[in-house]
Amino acid sequence: MQKRIHILAMGGTIAGSANDSSATTGYQAGAVGIVELMAAVPQVKEIAEVTGEQLAAIDSKDITAAEQLQLVSRVRELLLKGDVDGVVITHGTDTMEESAYLLDLVHFADKPVVITGAMRPATALSADGPLNILDAVRVAAADSARDRGVLVVLNNEIHSARLVTKMSTTAVETFQSPVGGAIGAINDGVVVFYHGAELHHLPNALSVSEKLTSQKELPYVPVLYGHSDDDGRLVKLVADEGAKGIVYAGMGNGSIPARVEAELGAAVEQGIVVIRASSSISGMVTKAEASYEEAGFIASGLLNPRKARLLLQVALVCGKSAADLRKFLA
Ligand SMILES: NC(=O)CC[C@H](N)C(=O)O
């Protein structure tokens, strides 16, 4: 019997439309609907019984917490249904790694959830969307993809949600995992896993996902981008604005300029949870200096700043402590 795969369409370039087939920028993201998207890849019928649903039609740079939570909620419903074997999500690439990571944090099932998108609009010559959809359906229907968490599939490669990031502004091969590399590929239509990424679900992911479905927003947790001569005034500003947490994208191994460190220390004393991440693309943020640990800052480990932010938001919603976060990230 064929696997049953449900596609959720969120918009993005994969659903982008331009007037000129040679245009790969300056198009309207999210303009092409799920019916048209699916019509471009009739080959999926040979792989699985595929159904589709339009959940949003947005440029993913504009995605809100409410829309991310709606996605979590719909994926949760689908995974709990007996008649769905896997879920494919088509999504804009700008925030794809964030939605993928959020879904991965609360992924409770062994059924695959695969996110894909495109770098060229649907109307472009050599549009990459149709093959990406076909590959995503192949992965979602593969027995070997079960129990691997949420996967990102583009450009014939399979990446884990935790490690993948958008590396290039415009290149088709933009999604890469700087630490660890791709975990698999789709070679000539055959799904191959090279190695398994470590699963990264929160403990009690099923109940955490249920908790998230009742939320309409997530706590205010800004990311502050570190740079030379940073005097820390933005830390004070966001603390005054009611931040519940702050992710500081420091330099190198999460280094923080002394003046910022003092402001972040004051923020921790006010009850704001601080995560130290890095603007460097590759590598892990380790505990580094003793003063950071003494101040109560949490090292982001392998998470980039935007993913660390989502983890912190979810942790705050679920009443997890800084100690829980440290344990999870260790
Ligand atoms: N290639 C893309 O999908 C980027 C287009 C758009 N900004 C989006 O993320 O939806």
TrEMBL record:
The active site is at T13, T93. Residues 4-195 form the L-asparaginase N-terminal domain. GO terms for biological process: asparagine metabolic process. Gene3D superfamilies: 3.40.50.40, L-asparaginase, N-terminal domain (3.40.50.1170). One of its GO terms (molecular function) is asparaginase activity. Substrate binds at S60, T93, D94. Residues 221-328 form the Asparaginase/glutaminase C-terminal domain. PROSITE patterns: ASN_GLN_ASE_2, ASN_GLN_ASE_3. Keywords: Hydrolase. InterPro entries: AsnASE_II, Asp/glu_Ase-like_sf, Asparaginase/glutaminase-like, Asparaginase/glutaminase_AS2, Asparaginase_C, L-asparaginase_C, L-asparaginase_N, L-asparaginase_N_sf. Belongs to the asparaginase 1 family. NCBIfam families: asnASE_II (TIGR00520). This is L-asparaginase. It comes from Selenomonas ruminantium.
